[in-house]
Amino acid sequence: MPRPAPRSHSPDTAQAPDASQDGRPDSARTYVVAGCKLSAASLQPGLHIVATPIGTLADVTLRALATLAAADVILCEDTRVTRKLVSHYGIATPLSAYHEHNAAEMRPRVLARLAAGGRVALVSDAGTPLISDPGFKLVRDAIGADAFVTAAPGASAVLNALVLAGLPTDRFFFEGFLPAKAQARRNRISELATLPATLVLYETGPRVAAALADLADGLGDRPAALAREMTKRFEQVRRGGLAALAAALGGEPAPKGEIALVIGPPPDEAPATVEDIDALLARALARASVKDAAGEVAAVTGRPRREVYARALELAKPAR
Fold first, then answer.
1. Rounded to two decimals, what is the model's pTM?
2. How far apart are CA 140 and CA 150, in angstroms?
3. Which of 94, 273, 306, 317 has the fewest CB atoms within 10 Å distance of its CB?
């Protein structure tokens, strides 16, 4: 049997049928803004990726509200979190949990619903779905099944932190969360050291002081910013060198709330000298194997790994 042609991927075409997939009448597909009850326009069948606020509920877009109200179901990481948003705006669309622990089981059901003409909205607990959130495989498989896929853009903690930091924005790299274990974290930081871009990371309150200390050690004292509770009443952005931020956070109780770290790119410097390489190797060999130390220093200096490894072997030889 020939494969049916994919549906149009323009959000302004192919209006949804009048019959609802979940049994709700169109009159129930409403939302409330500033005390005014509004009816959501019919929604094209398919998967709608919807950005939600990262803190302040007023940051939601009108398109997001209309999409959530018109959908047959809202897939969310935690129904308790999303229920606060939809309840605030008078949206009665059913919620269904979709997270990393049930995704393998839920995904075939969602794809079947899409194939039957369902209108499915996907949200995360906060911000733009798929950014350090589950959902990538669902979007990939929906595209593979020729389902209509679109996004209602909005808040993103990555971009919010980046524009608050006061650091270069022409090129940036989003790392997500660093490894929780110290050695794995340091290894990953050494891999990031030579990226010619501003770095954006997420971190937890209990780990942020240790992470900052490792970042200062592995990247040098670059300019940085720590943003927490963004868009909320107690939003805070602390700016300074990595070493100063690490020292400050190390002497304070662990901060609360969601945290994003923004770190400036590496400075434009002259190539590392032999003395520079020896000093870096001496530090690295004090805590790592010859192989790992050579890899770390090669990544930081841009020198050939084989050359740095040979020098590391020389330095690691016991003194006679």
1. 0.77
2. 12
3. 317
The confidence score (pLDDT) of residue 20 equals 53
In a domain, 252, yes or no: yes
On the question of pLDDT at 15 being above 50, the answer is: no
- The average pLDDT across 141-169 equals 97
For residue 152, give every residue at least 6 positions away whose Cβ sits within 8 Å of its Cβ, in sequence order, or none: 48, 49, 50, 51, 61, 63, 64, 67
Which domain does 304 fall in, by range? 274-316
What backbone torsions phi and psi does residue 133 show, to the nearest 5 degrees? -140, 160
So what's the pLDDT on residue 17? 36
Domain presence at residue 290: yes
Q: At what angle do helices 305-316 and 290-301 cross, to 10 degrees?
A: 130
In a domain, 123, yes or no: yes
Measured in degrees and rounded to the nearest 5, phi and psi for residue 90 equal 65, 35
pLDDT of res. 320: 55
For residues 49 and 150, state if they share a domain. yes
